[in-house]
Amino acid sequence: MSDFTIRFWGVRGSVPCPGPATKRYGGNTPCVEVRCGQRLLILDAGTGLRELGDKLMQDGEAIDADLLLTHCHYDHVIGIPFFAPFYQPQHRFRIWAGNLLPDFRLKSVMHSMMSEPLFPVGIDRFQADIEFCDFKAGEPVAPGGGVTIRTVALNHPGGATGYRIDYKGRSVAYLTDNEGRPEDRDEALIAAARGADLVIYDTAYTEDEIEAKKGWGHSTWQDGVRLADAASVKTFCLFHHAPEHDDATMDELLAKARLARPGTIAAMEGLVIDL
Question: What are 134-189's pLDDT values in tens digits?
């Protein structure tokens, strides 16, 4: 295994959907573990974050990591109160959000989410060294360790941020919760994905479904294929699967996407990609 890997802990959008019909692809909401040498990056904090936290606790090592949020809608942050390492003093985290300024601050948003009457435990119960980092999408994030992260604004209600991670000549772009614009090429998005070894993209809906969901901030696999082709991406990955798309439906969508773009994959919980 190389020193640049991606592991999926949550691949669904909107709401968790565990059960026998989603067993193969998984029912947790977005959370992706990225390892760049000694650096740990976590993309989004959906319900998949809980299981990642449990695994990190089992490893027994002090954690120093960056948690990169696309945005703060519930399906992308609901794992935060249940992330066990936040309650241990030996760990250190930086949590990043690029869509809140100037109206909000990340720390105050997290405080609101974890307060009565919504939640019985506040962020003051966290014991880890946690830094809440606000920035504006388009600005770089600097985690250190030879890792370069570029960011891009996504087309989503309330805003969202995409991340392009480069390390030792390889790259992954995480571009979820974005509404495709077939009639208007998004040059900034294409630039963020250009030449990437892997692009993880929001493919929540089918072409038939998207007509009734315009303005919701999501895309189709066809939108993703257009982006991947325009940006000369090596491998395209379906992500943010709709909760109503069971394993059989996902198999069908993946087969169609592979006909349009051979080599396409779909995110599944537990899948590890070695770049």
Answer: 999 999 999 988 999 999 999 999 999 999 999 999 999 999 999 986 656 789 99
Q: Cβ(69)–Cβ(96) under 8 Å?
A: yes
The residue segments making up the domain with residue 51 are: 4-274
Q: Distance between CA atoms of 127 and 59, rounded to whole angstroms?
A: 19
Q: What is the pLDDT of residue 199?
A: 98
Helical segments of the chain, H only = 48-59, 74-77, 106-113, 187-193, 207-210, 221-230, 247-260
CATH number at residue 29: 3.60.15.10
Domain count for the chain: 1
Is 82 in contact with 53 (CB distance < 8 Å)? yes
Q: How far apart are CA 130 and CA 115, in angstroms?
A: 18
- Is residue 103 exposed (0-12), middle (13-18) or buried (19+ Cβ within 10 Å)? exposed
Between the alpha carbon of residue 104 and those of residues 44, 97, 153, the distances in Å are 18, 10, 16
Q: Which tens digit of pLDDT belongs to each residue from 206-233?
A: 999 998 988 899 999 999 999 999 999 9
